[in-house]
Amino acid sequence: FGSAGLEHGQAAITAVRARPEIFDDERASFFGVSVDPNDEREQRGADSYPGYRFFWDFDGTASRLYGALPTDAQPGQGPMPFRALWVVLDPTLRVIEVIPFAPDQSDLQALFTLMESLPPPSRFAGFEVQAPILFLPRVFEPEFCQRLIALYEAHGGEESGFMRDVDGKTVAVSDPRHKRRRDYIIQDQELIAATQARFRRRVVPEIHKVHQFRVTRMERYIVACYAAEDEGHFRAHRDNTTKGTAHRRFAVSVNLNDDFDGGEVSFPEYGSRSFKAPVGGAVVFSCSLLHAVSKVTRGRRYAFLPFLYDDAAAELRERNQAFLGQGVATLPSQAGAPRE
Q1: Which residues pair with 136 in a beta bridge?
Q2: Residues facing 285 on adjacent strands
Q3: What CATH number did the domain enclosing 83 receive?
């Protein structure tokens, strides 16, 4: 919308706020993009949940990407020819419709007519689609799962955060609203080798068959615990969005037990269906996929959660070491090679 200081921009914000039955983060979400610093200073576009969020795009990056600004427009070089518009995206972030702002504000009715005609997000493709994941039973034997759980229960786990790029460096941050999970880092080299052997036989060939990708590296050997007493969960995220995690290609979630409620893995871009692997079973998916873990409401969910990649990605990881922030750089690499 460019600026909430303009009549049409303010009308657009007022109109969407008047339709909370549409913008409820279940059916749809509204993201307003402003290039006017006065909007932030004067709080003319405050986030409110569910449904409404604002991006301050003062350098024009997002606006150029979506065609609201010319690709060669540079802030600070005089007035910029802004083309205000609505961009309606499906859950996979593919464009459904672009509706330019109209002088008579008829774009508002056009937007709501379109939104009311759309199917539920789970049927955005015309039918319910399956998330592009692998579902593999029997990766770990039940006895091996119990061995890993016993290791966690004997040593306990440390609260784990997540990675963000801040001022050009990948740093570990903690926000219990976004993630609550405790991890135990496996140190026993014999046990690490045992996990690698099972992955080499039971996971790597399936990834190669389906994705024609040859895994040679395995990162992060942990027993993770999402506990009901902690309201364990992990909100929607991707696993490779920072310099320090860009090398990750596939994530694997191996359930070590099943006596819990909640804690299921879902892929919001492909509908609301969630997945709970059986004991020793794995969900395997690209690190680029948006995914979440629902809140555990009973018991504890124990899981083995490594990342897989190849030699080319290992070279990228090595190059990106320079971008790791304090503390992150000193962590053990935990990179093994389930080589064939």
Answers
A1: 282
A2: 251
A3: 3.40.30.10
